[in-house]
Amino acid sequence: GQNLRLRGGAEQRLYHFGSGKADGSRHMLVSLGNKGANLAEMSNLGVNVPPGFTLTTSVCDEYNSQGKTMPANLMTEVLASIKNIETQMGQTFGTADKPLLLAVRSGAAVSMPGMMDTVLNIGLNDQVVAGLASSTSDRFAYDSYRRLLAMFGEVVLGLEAGAFEAQMDLVREEVGVDDDSMLTGEDMKVIVGRFKEIYSQNGVSLPEDPKVQLEMAITKVFDSWDNARSVEYRNIHDITSTTGTAVNVQAMVFGNLGSTSGTGVLFSRNPSTGENHLYGEFLLDAQGEDVVAGVRTPSPIALLEKTMPEVYKELLANVEKLEAHFGDMQDVEFTIQDQKLFLLQCRSGKRTGQAAVRIAVEMFKEGAMTKDVAITKVQGQHLDQLLHPQFANEEAYSERVVGRGLPASPGAAVGQIVFTSAEAQMIRAQGGAAILVRGDTSPEDVGGMHASEGILTQRGGMTSHAAVVARGWGKTCVVGCMEMQVDDVSKTFTLGGKTFKSGDWISLNGNSGDVIDGKEPLSPPILAGDLGTFMGWVDEKRRLQVYANADTPEDAAEARRNGATGIGLVRTEHMFYSSEERLTAVRKMIMADTCEQRSEALEKLLPYQRADFEGIFRAMDGCHVTIRLLDPPLHEFLPSGNMEDVCAMIASEHSISSEAVLDKLNRLSEVNPMLGFRGCRLGVVFPEISAMQARGIFEAALSAKAKGWVSVPNIMVPLVGCVKEFETQAKVIRDTAAKVFAEKGDSIDFKVGALVEIPRACLIAGQIAKTADFFSFGTNDLTQMTFGFSRDDMGTFLPTYLAQGILQKDPFQQLDTEGVGELIKMTVDRARAVNPDVTFGVSGEHGGDPSSIKFFDSIGIDYVSCSAFRVPIARLAAAKAAVEAK
Amino acid sequence: GQNLRLRGGAEQRLYHFGSGKADGSRHMLVSLGNKGANLAEMSNLGVNVPPGFTLTTSVCDEYNSQGKTMPANLMTEVLASIKNIETQMGQTFGTADKPLLLAVRSGAAVSMPGMMDTVLNIGLNDQVVAGLASSTSDRFAYDSYRRLLAMFGEVVLGLEAGAFEAQMDLVREEVGVDDDSMLTGEDMKVIVGRFKEIYSQNGVSLPEDPKVQLEMAITKVFDSWDNARSVEYRNIHDITSTTGTAVNVQAMVFGNLGSTSGTGVLFSRNPSTGENHLYGEFLLDAQGEDVVAGVRTPSPIALLEKTMPEVYKELLANVEKLEAHFGDMQDVEFTIQDQKLFLLQCRSGKRTGQAAVRIAVEMFKEGAMTKDVAITKVQGQHLDQLLHPQFANEEAYSERVVGRGLPASPGAAVGQIVFTSAEAQMIRAQGGAAILVRGDTSPEDVGGMHASEGILTQRGGMTSHAAVVARGWGKTCVVGCMEMQVDDVSKTFTLGGKTFKSGDWISLNGNSGDVIDGKEPLSPPILAGDLGTFMGWVDEKRRLQVYANADTPEDAAEARRNGATGIGLVRTEHMFYSSEERLTAVRKMIMADTCEQRSEALEKLLPYQRADFEGIFRAMDGCHVTIRLLDPPLHEFLPSGNMEDVCAMIASEHSISSEAVLDKLNRLSEVNPMLGFRGCRLGVVFPEISAMQARGIFEAALSAKAKGWVSVPNIMVPLVGCVKEFETQAKVIRDTAAKVFAEKGDSIDFKVGALVEIPRACLIAGQIAKTADFFSFGTNDLTQMTFGFSRDDMGTFLPTYLAQGILQKDPFQQLDTEGVGELIKMTVDRARAVNPDVTFGVSGEHGGDPSSIKFFDSIGIDYVSCSAFRVPIARLAAAKAAVEAK
Ligand SMILES: [Mg+2]
Ligand SMILES: [Mg+2]
Question: What is the Cβ-side half-sphere exposure of residue A851, based on CA atoms within 13 angstroms?
């Protein structure tokens, strides 16, 4: 039905390229596929590509929708087009004299690795190969022939790949060589014979007629579009936009025809440093695979200028043209056949962080790209590399790697092994460097984690406690190192057959997960001058503000250095963990039976909170500081371990009976703590806690004001689900403000807002907006509740979900725009409709994820907040979002 | 601003009633308040009410919005209206000769108990009381005077109530009587003197001028509208529709003026049985309080016909008129003052279940109401009463009550105490009756709970496991009996100072929570013939289908008897608990390391499932049966207790090492099981489980078909959050169907649907609807996730939330229409837009809650499903929803 217009013959179904011109261009991606569009574009630029043509995706669709029959007259058209190729190459398809060989490759609009069928060297048979041998060599001709036999056999006829490999092995053994490059022309003839036997054992044969070979190969590529594997791949990856694969038929060219031929790869600029010079290597008398295989050592590209000056000049001109045209540093593959240069492929080149920034800045200065484009050329991981210390030489340590875990937080760390927080803090106090090694970590370990250079755990995944906390601080962390056996009693661990003890030196690579025995040299973060220039452009282009999450004055200072213009999340309870005295006061509060006892315990906490807040206000002078009231369930503040010991400890600490403690602990224990007595539920039941925290904030802000610092506290009520939860807590905060302001005879501006992390809050956002000054989205909890996933427990099924494509991404790393994102958008729309002055922020981990930031930008969020170390990456992502939205 | 129109004088602000006419009517509820509108209506009907007038709610609003100043000329208008009352009563306000006394009462449009101010006997002073005494008696006159002093003092002047009560106590002591009725006129004079002293001690006095008394009382009622208490009440109860209280000023009438006076209460029909005859009692020479106080024994109303035939005739005529007019059985208060009948109040009378049904049926037959109205006159709890066994005589056992818990599931149960499931099952097997007594219950106890007549627990609330399961079965249950001490080791419990042991008889009242020592006689459910007639009308009027939740063939049969037309939820895993053999097979499946081992274990479960399904299909011949695939986390199937013992037990059961078991159990243990590895997540990771269950269903359905029964399985995928979860599970089910149909050479109709209980499923409902035949809302889980509440843990804060009005209702009992309801509506709208054929059901507990059912009806749900015992109540609620929607 939908392809009738094709059968009418009006639509062009075959697009030529080669000889400096093409029917298509890179704008015809949907029709020509990725590969076809790119070949056309190069051709149009006058770059010499092996000539050929592309059958459009519509042709494939027609083939499939007509019950897999070849569209009428298609082969006639194909064969007519081959005449073109013959003319350009000075070769003839199917003749023994100067035979033309063809490559047939699939090429869909969206890349589908693993389902792309390719057949090379089409056009050979017993006659043609003999002719080819006489004009080149037996070695070359029969090597090409055996490749055709194996590839055609596997791909088109469905023979087992193993059978061909087994024969290759056998011949190598018989001849006594290790490597194919040492096989002679005679050996290749033997292999061709053996391969033909495999064909006849399976009752098939290679079609003698090259035209039949070609048609069968094209048909096979069409078929591959809707085989089970491809359909499944598209289902999993939700690829619905395209309706078939394009097919590229292209002349074969050879770099292994002697010393006037060769092959190579190069970059238009140095991909390590970004310097503007040709960077790459080549081999004479070689094929593409040989450069990669590493059997022969390639020569630096500069040498080509001496060997073949004309070719080099042409190559340089082509590369410059491609870089200018595509507006980016290019990665190019080329082949020289008998002094004639062919470019096989070009694409934007991969580069280091340092190179990415330098190239972007220099290409802008050269007028080769706009600032908008420059911003799109630097990726988040480029900045990540630049902002963490790295090992000076990663290759140097390979023999000292004793194990590998999951690379949970990037960078490199070197230090002495410790097993407890106390040890870590002691080493830190002495000016040393510690690596904390644990089975896994819990909130009690945060003091020690903070005092360490890096963290290594046996258990846990990319979203485990250790991983999340370490990423928050930009601290190197390797988790889930399963082979490691940790013995906390003897303070040792074994890994890679070696036993390590407290005080031994190890090094961690947070980019790769490597655990290295000994002290590996580090190089400091590379903060080249170009980075400053580049980040200036980033800030100029972005609309979204970037705030940071910070729990201490030190975090806040770090955030500000990284360009944060406010604090989006202060987790007040983290202040409670930071000393044993504080934890004792918190436990006293938990054990309180009456409001009076609780208030007494809170009195003790007030000075700590006030001092910490004042430090943060000082560091963030002039900025908004968003503070979340107490959030976690109270049982999180209790020590872990044997219940009896814990009870006895708390009982003696607060002079109450062990039974009373046990009773209290039993009442606090929860089946689903995530959905329990936490967040503003604590503040509603114990408003004196919220009042103490608000007092700490306002007293600190007034004290800061007296010292000349401007602070704008944004006080945030966590886990709001009912409008009255917010209203009662907002009243406690505002009443406390009035009281403190009256006592001190001074006042400051402040805001009261809701942390939106319960689906219900999104639905009633209009009601909350009546009394809220701002909303902050706690996307971690919101994702948990919207999916009904517990981050602590999803390890059982998440790997299966990702492998089967039930989920495309871990929704805790990249925001689920379809579900969670819709709730966020609904919140923004409903709240703005009621109160246009309300502002919106994001304080979950998604605030530092580029693709999530793009979404937040698109729905009109005002700021994102992330860990201090991710602030530059978030700034970049915000700028890209703004540029891409144009 | 908004009251300008009032000041213009155009709007009537005072409405008269009395003498068989009135300015207002019952349709002026908003303006006249509840009491005022009703007095007007009675008056209009020619019923003799003490004359008076109502100041509208707008007057109160004007007073308050003008800074609490009396609207211009209001008192002039009031005093002019008093002339009317004087004329009708033949009395004069403020004179000693035949003085008129007035009552001033507030009366808002929405009832606000506890904030209603009332002042009676206004118009007395030292002169007036003397005059009143001379025309009546000292006793009567000074009793009235001391009442005015106390009430005016408390309500208007804010004196302490305790001071007046203390003086009453003192006088009673001095005179040596226990009861006020024994105080003489002289005693009353003493009291009046003492009360005046309280006034002067507080520096206030009762205004001499009755007009001033009246104005102050009216002002006070106006003031009460926005005192702190009232504002808080309206906030908590979300009353925003009204802007003030009405004030009723009405003549006082007295039934205690001798033997030609009297007072009484009556019902127009018998409220216990529903029989159509006057039912009530009266006292001569008495005031209203005396009838209720029980000091004198009232006479049956029939006696009045002999005592005062004319008055009786008039009363009868009035009651008949009121019943006909209001179209319902009436509860009437009356006073006879000197042979003159006054009706003080009429309202629809409270009645038993039996009476409710009989009255509805008979009044329809009499032509006094339509079927639609008849349906609104019977409440859910009326049916509940009719459908459970009750104690024959609740008053008889009062001295044997040993304790009281929460009435978690209604009805009455009598049995022998057991402490374990095994004991319960043994007694049941012997034909006996057991009451299971536990600290609390867990899924392991369900066998024993099912085998018991009733369940009693020490801990847990209305939504605890025991409560939910028991309500599901309509089994009597009392939970949270905190004074009870259960000792599982010695198999005893103590309660009410007595120790009970295994085998002792107790009785439970599930309506009141009473725990009764011994064997109390029961009466069977009252299933009068009227009930059948009435339920026929219910089914005729409703649009919603009512299905039942049923896990066994017995449950299904019970559901059908109660009128269910389908099964909305079969929890397949409940079949796994029902024997030790089955649990062993389930544990084998859990311990499996490979798909093969798992399939082997599943083979063992298949015959059980098939047999159970066939039983259900048989019971539900011709109906839809909705079956939920395995839902709970696997660790729920493991025995509880000491970890070492459990491991050893499982290890020996399945011949594996204890370490391997421990490792498996550790991997299964979860921090937040509610959000963990459960629902379709199990089926996605282990599709062989879903395939086994689907096979069981299809084989059972084909076997049932062979026996002549028609079954339509609706297979439901639980906990869907991602569209691909549903798609992969639906494919497993449909593929299994095709396989089984091919094997058996026969087929049946079936449907595949999604259980919507994750917020994300609501957002992507349009996607799911593409491949789903139906949606069922699991409102329990959906409420948990939308609020972020865990039912197991919310006991810590829910009581505070309800007390503070943060929540109006427990959202697990009554659907939260604002949050959860909006998600459900969104789901229906999005799914229908994509697939108009998709059907919608509700299978959470809300499916049996009348107010939730009304909401489900309004958004176009197709059926609700509830426990078998609630089916009649749900049918009634569905009919009411349909009638009210007209
Ligand atoms: Mg949170
Ligand atoms: Mg559920």
Answer: 10
- Nearest-angstrom CA–CA distance, B203 and B205: 7
B837 phi/psi in degrees, rounded to 5: -90, -10
Q: Which residues pair with B404 in a beta bridge?
A: B514
- Higher per-residue confidence, B115 vs B384: B384
Distance, in Å, from the CA atom of B468 to the CA atom of B387, rounded to the nearest integer, reads: 18
How many Å lie between the alpha carbon of A668 and the closest alpha carbon of chain B? 8
- Candidates A633, A693, A694; CA nearest to A667 is A633
Measure the CA–CA gap between B782 and B310, rounded to whole angstroms.
63
pLDDT in tens, A841-864: 999 889 999 999 999 999 999 999
> Of B231, B672, B807, which to mutate for an interface test with A (greatest number of A Cβ within 10 Å)?
B672
β A401-404/A454-457 pair status? unpaired
Residues 6+ apart with CB under 8 A from A79: A211
Residue A7 pLDDT? 39
- Quote the ligand 1 centre to B791 CA distance (angstroms): 19
Res B428: pLDDT: 87
The tokens describing A304, both together, are: 């080509």
CA of B757 relative to ligand 2 center, distance in Å = 6
For residue A742, count other CB atoms closer than 10 A to its CB. Answer: 10
The CA distance from B669 to the nearest CA of chain A, in Å, is: 9
**Tokens standing for residue A277:** 């010079």
Q: What is the 3-state secondary structure (H, E, C) of A154-210?
A: HHHCCCCHHHHHHHHHHHHHHHCCCCHHHCCHHHHHHHHHHHHHHHHHCCCCCCCCH
Separation between Cα atoms, residue A66 and residue A335, nearest integer Å: 39
A541 contact partners, CB below 8 Å, separation of at least 6:
A371, A372, A375, A879, A882, A883
Partner residue opposite A724 with nearest CB, options B671, B788, B805: B805
A728: chain B residues, CB-CB within 8 Å? 804, 806
Ligand nearest to the CA of B571: 2
Straight-line distance from the first to the last Cα atom of chain A, in angstroms, rounded to the nearest whole number? 38
Distance CA A416, CA A636 (A): 29
Per-residue pLDDT, A570: 96
Contacts of A789 in chain B (CB under 8 A): 675, 721
> Strand order of the sheet with strand A279-284?
A299-300, A279-284, A262-267, A330-337, A340-348
Backbone angles phi, psi at B473, to 5 degrees: -95, 0
Question: What order of strands is seen across the sheet that includes strand A476-479?
Answer: A401-404, A514-517, A505-509, A412-418, A434-438, A454-457, A476-479, A406-409
Q: Which of B672, B684, B807 sits opposite A672 (nearest CB)?
A: B672
Alpha-carbon distance of A344 to A265, in angstroms, equals: 10
CB contact under 8 A, B822 and A725: no
Nearest by CB to residue A673, choosing from B671, B758, B820, is B671
Task: Let me know: does B623 contact B550? Beta carbons within 8 Å.
Answer: no
Give the Å distance between the CA of A631 and the centre of ligand 1. Answer: 7
**What type of residue is A478?**
V
The distance between the two most distant Cα atoms of chain B, rounded to a whole number of Å, is: 104
Q: Is A786 within 8 Å of B758 when comparing Cβ atoms?
A: yes
Question: What tokens appear for A460 in the block?
Answer: 């846990």
Any bridge partners for residue B752, and if so which? Answer: B715
What is the pLDDT at residue A289?
65
A295 pLDDT higher than 60: no
Check pLDDT > 90 for residue B710: yes
The alpha-carbon gap from A545 to the nearest alpha carbon of chain B, in Å, equals: 29
Q: How far is A722 from chain B (nearest CA, A)?
A: 7
The answer to whether residues B754 and B768 touch, using CB atoms and an 8 Å cutoff, is yes
What is the token pair recorded at B22? 């009135």
